[in-house]
Amino acid sequence: MSGLWGGPFVMGLLITLLGIVALGAVVVTSVASVIFFGSMLVVAGVFEIVHAFRVRKTGPFLMFLLGGVLSIVVGAMLLSRPGSGLVAMTLLLAGYFFASGLFRGITSLVDRYAGWGWDFAYGIVSVVLGVSISTQMPASTLWALGLVVGVEILSRGISIMAGALAVRGAMQRLAHP
To answer: Which of 10, 47, 83, 126 has its CA 20 to 30 A from that of 162?
Structure first.
């Protein structure tokens, strides 16, 4: 029965350790993220072009073909110039934090739903993070993306471990009512 929770727990532990390593090497994580994203765009573009030819008589051939070409071109640009791609992705990240925080903060103030204060605080933090990243350009390109990716990997690993422990607790309660 430990296979139901033990395997996921070990996987969560390994992902947590990977997150810690990623946070310890944010510059490497940032560059690796750009290379990974560029590679995934190229692969997705190839699949989209293949799909375009599979549906050429029954579907929107041109939309899939042009979407695939665009994915390949953008992915190739990221792979050929990862430094420029890192700057672009960092600016995109800063803009996302700023806009998301602004929208969340304004919405929470206007709606005043239960727990709105937490969303308002999140909005403020997000706006400050977006402004901080953009005002520290180009230095923030070295740490911002890697930090966000590292925190995401770390929190995902912790979440998987917590889920595995919850399964273990439920199994113990079922075994010993």
So the answer is: 126
